[in-house]
Amino acid sequence: MTNNHYLVRLDWPEKSFRSSSADIEYLRSLLPEGASVEHVRSERAFLRALPKATHAIVWNFKKEWFVKAPRLKLLATPAAGRELIPEVGPEGVKIHFGGFHGGIIAESVVGFMLAFARGFFLKSEKVWPRVDFSDKCYSLSGTKAVVLGYGKIGAAIGAKLKGLGVGVEGFSRKNIEDLPRALKTADWLILALPGTTGTDNIVNAALLKKLPRRAVLVNIGRGNAIDEKALFEALKSKRIAGAYLDVRKVEPALEAPKLENLVLMPHSSAFYPSYVKDCFKELKDEGLL
Fold this sequence. Notes:
By secondary structure, this protein is α/β, with parallel strands linked by helices. The chain is 27% helix and 16% strand. Strands 7-6-8-9-10-11 form a six-stranded parallel beta sheet. Strands 2-1-3-4-5 form a five-stranded parallel beta sheet, sandwiched between helices. Helix 1 links the parallel strand 1 and strand 2. The longest helix has 16 residues. The chain is elongated and about 70 Å long.
């Protein structure tokens, strides 16, 4: 028996990221006997219920709210990004950021890479431009990807790519000094970085010049990591072959140059129907519920 009280507020415009009654029933099925669950939608209702909560699962949480939560043992968010809840809480409160969505983000990355390698994004005014791109399609297998930000999500991307015959080198703070060497032979530079100040404009004009002209940039981390002006210039001049940006420096991003080698998506690489349920399952699997 337990008297733990689980407070859930996962209210978000995108349907995939919004908890449903079915999601809450699934959460209840994971909990020990005697646990209670409270599902709220508004900030006002959340703050009213917070004093009872031992576990809070939320999208956003302000640091000053900790004083309203004397029983709190866990503050969890589905997000991998560090922008919406504090990274450190009071003594006795564990902070958890989601990593369960690495597999689906990896599918988004692989989907783009396959489409790019097989010429799906090549444009022509001809109805059947076989001659135009017959020498521009290549095999993904045998290429090399450099993954910058090799945490849970970066490693999930790496695992998917290795299964397709792609060579993978992962980089984090521990081995960042080896990055310039790896970039010289990279076919793909994949960013899975958090939106912290230490990653601001890490991809700048100088770094882009280290890449071969055949290289393609993929960003599914945070938009602050890229000097967008430098990237767009590199794409326009064909200094690199292409780019896929799921995230932008400012979101929602309303403007971007129209470039045939630039693919933009609206921060959607983690959309899938079981997002919230998989968040709860990860908490269970890691012994946090």
